[in-house]
Every structure is written in C-alpha cells, then in structure tokens.
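Hi everyone,

Forwarding the result from last night's run.
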Amino acid sequence: MKQFDVAIIGLGSMGSFAALELAKRKLSVIGFDKYSPPHEEGSHGGDTRAFRTVYTEHPNYVPLIKRSLQIWDRLAEEWDLPLLTRSGVISIGDPQSELIKGIVQSASVYNLELQKLNSVEIHKQFPALKPPEEFIGLIDCEAGLIDVPLAITNALKQARQLGADLRTNQPALEWTSNKGDIFIDTNQEKISAKKVLVTAGALTSKILASLDLPLVIRRQVLAWVKPYRSELFSPDCLPIFAFAPRGFYGFPNMGGGGVKIAHHERGDPLLGYPVKVPPVDEKDLNSLISDVSKFIPSLINPDQDPLKQIVRAKTCLYVMTPDGHCIIDRDPHNDEIIFATGFSGHGFKFSPVIAEALADLVTTEVTSLPIDFLSMKGRF
C-alpha cells in the first residue's frame, strides 16, 4: 500500500494550489478529482475571475488579499505567464448601497486608495457605462482579472513536477481512519495518508456528510455578448464593472470573445446536490439583458434580437454559506482531516494564500495568516 503525507480530495481552485504549496514544502502528496481541472462542472468555470483589493465582504479579508496579490505576482513572474491582468474594477451604486458602503469601510480601515467618480464622470471616462444620476463609482486601480484555466493548469503542472501524484477523473470513494493513518479507497487501489485535505467545492457536503455543513449550492448563469459598439468594450477602454442592484457585473471584451456578464447576488439553489444542473434558458438571459439595457445600453444593438447577440452562455456553481464567508477548519471528529469550502462566489482570488494557510495547518497545525474568522466556531 502506498503511503503519503497528505491526500487532497478535489484539485480545482483551492486543491490545485494546495498541492503545489505542499509539494514545495517537500511533503509527499497524492490528489484526486472526479473531473479533470480546469473544467466547467463546478465553481471555477467561466474563464476569468475578478481580483479586488478593496473588499466589501469583510475588512478582515484585506490582509489575505494583500498576501494573495504578492503570490499571484510572484507566480506570474516565475512562470512567465499573464495570470493576473491589472484592468481595474469600478463599483457603481447608490452611496447608501451595501456595495458602496462596504468598499468605503474597507478602504478606510486599511488606508486603501480609491478613485471616486459621480455618474457624469463615470460616463465620460467609460462611455459604455450609463449609471443613474444618483449613483457614484469607486475605482480600485490595483484590481484586475485572473485567467482561471491558465492558473489551475500551471499550478497542477508545477505540483506534478515537484513530485505530487495528482489523479484526475478518479474520485476518492471513501476512507477510514485507524491509529493516526487514513486509508482511502479509489476503487482502483487503497492508499494511506497521515492527513486528508478536502477542497472538493460543491461535492464537499457529500464527502463530509457527517458534519452536516450549512452549505447551499447555487446555480449561477454567465453570458458573453458580442458588443454592439465594440470600441467601447476593449480592455483598454473599460475595466471590470459591478453595479449594486442585484450584483450585476461584467468583464471587458477579452480577446474578442465577448463581454462577460452575470449576477452575483442571484442564483437558484440546487437542493440535494449532486443533481443535474439545468442548462441556461431564455428566462436566465432575459434577466441579464434587462440590466444591460439599464446600465450598459451600448452593449446590445436595440434594432436586433438581444438573445441573438449572446455568443455563449453557461452555468457555474456557488457554494454558499449562511453568512457568505468560507469555512476553513478541521473535522471536529478527526483532527487529521482539514477542509476548505463555501467560498460563496468570491474565493478564487484567494487560492494561493489559502493554500499557504492549509499547508500550515497540515504541517504545523497552526498558521500565522489571519483566518480565525473563517473557522466554524460560533458562526452557525
């Protein structure tokens, strides 16, 4: 029977970078995934993710953001790859909206730089955007977008080069624990590991069923639109944008593939997951088109069928917790099992710093990174 220091269940957003970090620390690592990351079956599908440095969800994320940004920049240099493109992010809404208030609070606590624009200035600087008169815009100039497939592919590649045994399209079916070792059955063989790290995204509730984790899997819709006035939507002319109502957001026209749009604060719960995820339908797209017409009217030609201007659409999954913050903790029944889950639609940017924290927990049982507020204790 093969023996490893740590087994990782799930090799997507968090698992790929955890495998890399643990392999760098010279641990023997084996990893399993039901699919072959990067893939379109879970939370990281959809090509890109935003990296925001001024954080609305909670000021405690900002130190993690700063460390994560350092790692993204270092990896981009080491790998000579454009992992993070500094496009900037403009957040737009009523000054009393939760989005705007959260950004202002976060910037104030950590003395972060913001550029503030009124609605006229927003439209002048970014003609594609047409917010209501009472809205303001806050620009996070250090923010940008992450190339998700490039990041995951190379994290897994580098981990393998450092000796990690990473097995895709091969789920870990079950495990048992005995005298400090954990025995994992893959249906092809049994292996043993001193620690197990579960980073399985939407499948975590099933894998850790005994913990009854308070997770809800939410179906999200992403769409890419061929821009009517394409000159207004190039990355040189438009940053990532987010509007307070319903969390409507979008990315510029990257590589001519279309302007990506979605709702962050909407999404249908998928009860009893894993279940078949319903495909995108006309109702989903009409909801997005409604916000396009309100806030970015030059995206769609008004004289043509809006649905025919959508070049592609897909779903991805949010793994939601009740408070919108992820969970990083140990199995209360077995300290050798560590898990990270429930990133609630805003986790990918943290992947490399969460990997450091998880590697600390595996190797020394504690971490100096400020993740205590993400444990389960006192939250649910």
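The chain has a mean pLDDT of 95.

Cheers,
N.
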